[in-house]
Amino acid sequence: MITLATISKRFGALDVLQDVSLAVRPGAVTALVGPNGSGKTTLIKIVLGLTRADHGTLHVADRPADAEGAYRRAIGYMPQAAHFPSNLRVGDVLDLVTQLRPGEAQDDELARAYDMDGIRDKFVGTLSGGTRQKVNAVIAFLFKPALLILDEPTAGLDPLSANVLKEKIRAVRREGRAVLITSHIMTELESLADDVAFLCDGQLRFAGAVGALLARTGARSLEDAIADLMRTERAGRRAPTGMADAPAPASWLAPQPNGAGGAA
Amino acid sequence: MNVVALVLQAGLRDLSRNRWIVAYTFCFFAIAEGLFWFGGTGPQVLLSMLNLVLLVLPLVALVFGTIHVYASREFVELLLAQPVPRRALFTGLYLGLALPLAGAFVVGAGIPFAVHAHDGASVGGVVALLAAGVGLSLAFAAIATWIALRTDDRLKGVGLALGAWLAATVVYDGLVLGAAAAFGNYPLERPLLGLMLANPVDVARVLVLTQLDVSALMGYTGALFEHTFGTALGTGVAALALISWFAVPLALAGRRFLRRDF
User: Fold this and answer.
1) CA nearest A72 in B: which residue?
2) How many domains does chain A have?
């Protein structure tokens, strides 16, 4: 669904991403985790075309990323924080995004669940942070893209709204679409994620199924497993299981770059 | 509608409801109307408004524009994550900033002149004032956009915007005056003409004053400009210079927008 091959990005003297190769499979929720500053946001921005990789290739839904951004028809994106022009009405924002993606199949299930019709005429600037986040989620799920990228999706949502969103994510997975999600709430990821990609210092240290990670670390929960990985990385030593630097399963890792396409 | 029109429409909707833009419109309206109310004739009001436009309009376009571009950054990222080309998005975003600024000035300053059309202000003078205001709005909105796209630090960006305003409205004239005084024994006509064209505020001033037959108010460079080019040619050259002051910063900002990492 997404295939990243040897993606590298440097900001000044800082190597933010180093030869990251990753494949995100359809019909699965992949959790992208790692400590602050590990390169998660940069990786997501490279997939979205907001940031350009210095090196490497990107394929989304089996087509190479193009400079004009047409490949983003396959992507729905929910940023961490919702910032819309405060003098636009909710309806203006939803209509704008809808009109920017003409001809795409629409999915109004989340819009109905969050009662967007009831707040269409409200100005964005008058909404609470949680309600803005609902608008943010509705925009991401408004179409039926092959891939959803969700950055801390439940931040600011009340428990009921968060539950509705998680159910929607599971429904998307059942439809065979891919979800790439980041969150610092490990229990939330554990309840959603099938696969885990662990980034640290710009390098992909683990990519595989949640079960495989738990089996290798001996941890009982995803939170414990990730904490264990982070402690190991912080201590600057190899993971006791020898897993952190071990190659991921061949079926999981992205193919090496073949020169086709380019990271946006 | 295409991407440019959609993003422009959103920008127009947002800024037409923005309280600062509404206040900005009302200020021009109140000041022009007040000048007429207190007995000013059309030409007098025109000249007073010109001084106001040359000072206030660049300041508002630069500071408001810079802050607006910074405030829109997360929304821009959301739009960039949609399947739209960056170039179209940039055009829509720029026009969505510059046109409301220019429109606010035209509405605020234009209505009083239309209402008091019988008070003697020449149509050419009023049109030149409004055109100069629109040109300055477009030019300084482009400069503001460029500054905000070049500088990630918001405080530094606003500081640069204020610096650009000071340079264009105060410092530049002082430097030109100083150079004219220091090198008074040399033939300075052509260098000074070049210097005048190198400042959009000076260009706008001359563009309006050449329509008003008030050479005494043009200053040294303005009078020299009219003498050298004549009114018709001078207007064309000044208009071309003002268009350049809009086109070059816009091209730089667009280039930055296309290449930068968000």
Assistant:
1) B83
2) 1
